[in-house]
Structures are given as structure tokens and as C-alpha cells.
Specification:
Number of strands: 2
Strand order of the largest sheet: 1-2
Number of helices: 14
Low-confidence stretches: none
Largest sheet: 2 strands, antiparallel
Number of domains: 1
Radius of gyration: 20 Å
Oligomer: single chain
Structural class: mainly alpha
Helix content: over 70%
Strand content: under 5%
Shape: globular
């Protein structure tokens, strides 16, 4: 029962924490209303979760060679819940997937479980690389979109209408892509235990991937609807002032990166040409969005960037995983006594 409750808590937290990355820039640019955006998000986050969450979820099972017992999974989730709630209170977007990974590593150290460090190092490498990718891609997409509108020679009212439609359409696509990553952050840690029977309030519940993905994605949507509006303000306006064309470029950047690391078809196609191998993994939408906003701000030599808040977010990328790791070490050690 505690596992179901923890899934529900972390899913709602994810909805409040990460869902804003899909529509935060659109709302911040005042092109879409929050309530309209969140309805689109909920619908497509569910589709994306059910269809594509299985791929990045596999990372968790591959990371720990002798996977922990399901009855101890709550020791991994509790530090994630605590630290994420603290980050929400401080209005700092965090990465749930990274927090779960570092909590899992902390737990495994205490339990003397075999860790696939090669995979762990690769995860850290791509977590560091994706913000740089987002920074560059956001600039390229912003220039491309501006060039297209210049070629089409639309007036200001036509541009406003086309961007509004594009933000809705590509926001839905981004929500679909994000669904795999957000749900994997929750379900991934339970992926080795799928297709088992759970006893919930004396009722037998057959647990499979589709049921779990659907359950988690619905709760993510609920968290987005109830609690994400304040985080939207952080993403959309407190870092830098977002205009409509850059908002669209940020969405394109999210879609491109999130699909690359969740779609088996794209991964197989890219690995033919790349000098290194990429693989499906849950990524931080918060980090991608933040780096994209900074990339857009580079057009004005970062004059619109608010340094204090920006530095706080960058430092949180280091502090949050370390804090979760330490909490996991402490909690697991206490539990063993």
C-alpha cells in the first residue's frame, strides 16, 4: 500500500514541478492561458506515457544489477519526495529522474548492491550534455522560425495567430514527448516488478506497464492542474522575459531532445551516424527549458537574464542530487539498524 501512495505523491509532485516546462514559456509570453494549456497537457501526457514510457524506464533496472526488493523501494522514494517538496517551497524546479537515480545509488551503497557504474557515468554525461544541446538548439530554432516568418511576410496579426496555433499544436507534441520521461521517473524504479500481483486493501491488483503508466500520468496531470501555476511563473517570467517566437523555439528544443532520448526508432537511426551511442533515458525537462531560455537570452547578450535566480537554479542542479543521495544513505542506514 505504501508503494501506491508514494507513486501517487511523487506523480503529483512531478506534475507540479515539471509539467510547467511544456507550457511555461507559452503562458509566460501571454500567448496562452494557464487553464487551457494544462488541459492539453493532461490529455497528451497520458498518451505519451502509455505509448513511450517503457523505453526510458528500462534504465533503472539496468543500473542496479541485483535489484532491491520491492518492499524496500519506499526507502528510495521518500528522500526524493522530501527534497522535491523543499525545492517546490523554494520555487526551484528540480529533476525527479535525477533525484530517483541518486537516491537509488545511495540506497545501493548501504545495501551493498552491484551498481553498473558505466551506465551511471553515461547518465551523468548526457545530463550534463543536454543543457548545452538545448542552449544551442534554442538559438538555431529561434533564428529558423524568425527567418520563416520573414520569408512569408506576414503582418503582425497573422504572425500572432500562427504562433498561437503553433504553441497549442507543438505544446501537445511536447507533452506527448514529455510523458515518457516524466512517467519513467516514477514507474522506472518499479519496472523490474511489472506483471506481478499486489495486495491493496485486501484486493488483488494485477500490476502491468500500461496500468501503471496510465495511473501515474493521470496523477501527473492532476498535479499540474492543481499546483503548477506558481512554477509556471518561475519558468516563464522570473528567469527572462519570453516573447512568442522564442517560446515556440523553446518548445521545438524540448520536442527534439525529449524524442531523441525516448524513441527507439530515432535512437537506432542516430546511433548509425554518431561516434558515441545514445540510449533511452529519463531526462530533466526543467534543465532543458532553463538552458533554452538562457540560449534565447543570449540574443540580447543576457541582459534580460536575472542573475540571482539563474545562479540559484544552476547551483540546485548540484545541490539537489547530492542532498537526495545523502538523505537516501541516512534513511537506509537507519532502517538497517
Amino acid at each position: 500500500m505504501i508503494d501506491i501512495l508514494l507513486i501517487a505523491i511523487i506523480a503529483i509532485i512531478i506534475g507540479a514541478n515539471d509539467a510547467s516546462n511544456v507550457f511555461g514559456s507559452a503562458v509566460g509570453s501571454k500567448m496562452l492561458k494557464f487553464k487551457i494549456s494544462v488541459v492539453f497537457f493532461i490529455i497528451f501526457i497520458i498518451f505519451g506515457s502509455i505509448i513511450n514510457a517503457e523505453n526510458p524506464s528500462q534504465v533503472y533496472g539496468n543500473l542496479i544489477l541485483d535489484y532491491p526488493d520491492i518492499n524496500k523501494i519506499f526507502l528510495i522514494i521518500i528522500p526524493v519526495v522530501v527534497i522535491t517538496i523543499v525545492s517546490l517551497i523554494l520555487k526551484i524546479p528540480s529533476s525527479i529522474s535525477q533525484s530517483v537515480i541518486f537516491s537509488l545509488i545511495g540506497f545501493s551503497f548501504v545495501e551493498n548492491l552491484s551498481i553498473n557504474f558505466d551506465l551511471f557515468y553515461n547518465l551523468i554525461y548526457f545530463w550534463l550534455a543536454t543543457p548545452f544541446m538545448a542552449f544551442i538548439l534554442s538559438i538555431l530554432f529561434c533564428r529558423l522560425i524568425s527567418l520563416i516568418f520573414k520569408i512569408l511576410r506576414l503582418n503582425i496579426f497573422q504572425i500572432d495567430y500562427q504562433i498561437r496555433l503553433a504553441l497549442i499544436f507543438f505544446g501537445c507534441v511536447a507533452a506527448f514527448a514529455l510523458g515518457a520521461h516524466l512517467t519513467a521517473a516514477i514507474v522506472g524504479i518499479y519496472s523490474p516488478f511489472l506483471d506481478i500481483d499486489l495486495n491493496v486493501l485486501n484486493f488483488s491488483l494485477a500490476l502491468n506497464d500500461k496500468k501503471l503508466y496510465f495511473f501515474a500520468s493521470v496523477l501527473i496531470g492532476l498535479g499540474a492542474y492543481l499546483f503548477s501555476q506558481k512554477i509556471v511563473r518561475t519558468i516563464g517570467s522570473q528567469i527572462s522575459n519570453i516573447k512568442p517566437v522564442p517560446a515556440l523555439a523553446i518548445l521545438f528544443t524540448q520536442i527534439f531532445i525529449l524524442f531523441i532520448f525516448s524513441s527507439d526508432y530515432l535512437i537506432e537511426a542516430l546511433n548509425i551516424f554518431l561516434p558515441f551511442q545514445i540510449f533511452a533515458m529519463p531526462l530533466s525537462a526543467s534543465h532543458i527549458t532553463f538552458a533554452s531560455i538562457i540560449g534565447i537570452a543570449s540574443f540580447n547578450k543576457f541582459r534580460e537574464v536575472k542573475p540571482k535566480h539563474t545562479i540559484k537554479i544552476i547551483l540546485s542542479w548540484i545541490i539537489i542530487p547530492i542532498s537526495v543521495f545523502c538523505c537516501s544513505l541516512l534513511l537506509t542506514s537507519i532502517y538497517k539498524i
